[in-house]
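[audit] Reproducing an earlier prediction to check determinism. Same input, same settings, fresh worker. If the tokens differ from the archived copy the diff job will pick it up downstream; this log only records the rerun itself.
[audit] input (333 residues):
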Amino acid sequence: MNHATSCKMPDILNTSDGKERRVGVEIELSGLGYQQLVTLAAELLEGEATPESRYVSKLATPLGNFIIELDSDPIKDLDLADDRLPQSLRELGGQAMEVIDAAAERIVPLEIISPPVPFSRLSQIETLISRLRGAGAQGSRETIYFAFGLQLNPELPDLKPTTLIRYYQAFAVLYDWLKARHQLDISRKFTPYIEPWSSRYTDLLVTDDYAPDQREMMVDYLESNPTRNRALDLLPLFAYLDKPLLDQYVKDPRIKSRPTLHYRLPDCDIDNPEWQFSTVWNDWIVVEQLANHAEDLAELRGLFRDSRKISLRNLTRSWQETSANWLQSKGYV
């Protein structure tokens, strides 16, 4: 595979103010020690690592600042001097920490969090993942309790409600197709992190006359989906748009305000040589393209609404199959 050219680009490459669009990438993995990952990532990204706290490092690179961390707050924050810990554990000191570290690195994912990366430079993320695979990184398939994800935080062309609704609609009608494409590992399938939006909300969203203002858009979503645990999580975007309104429905310190979508559906199958970052990214590009082709989006929404009616056809053909055939017939895949 040619990593320099494998990531497809959407039709809309710039934001409304003329700047190149960017995307944040979050990669969960195992199979490498924490310090081993920090050292390797610094080498691959031509960066310099600085410890921020225990199990958290900032990596300054030409692409911006990456964060590498062990994805568990209790372990990152553990202090053996804490009086709340058993005396026997505190007395073990460094020996206890070595045991805790060894156990944590086996069962808790390590995470690489990128800065916003320009679309045109995503080949560097592809190369990074390929090199980590070669170094022994492991993903979701390795163990039943691994449920590692590869998450995307794509910047939107603009934040007008009409633009946002098109993206939501495109994702809603493509959810089944995306889930089948990602061939989610069983450990991810049984986690709550990648649930679809509620049927009630989706039915409202795909109607032809749905045209809410910003507040209505947020309320409609939050009344049916007041949680981070959605395959496309809108709460970071809502925190950016109107945090006081979001706080009326959800208060969670893990929600980070940003003008992006938060795509959580894909798993991280990094140790599979057939799996590539570009395959995940290119499937997202289908959402991008559909959202920005109004006639096609309207047609697929209509087919989606028909698929939810009781009929003989719908009893013998799944929406995933119907949408896949439609995308192929239209040249999206």
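[audit] rerun output stored. Observation attached for the diff report: The chain has two domains: 23-137, 158-333.
[audit] end
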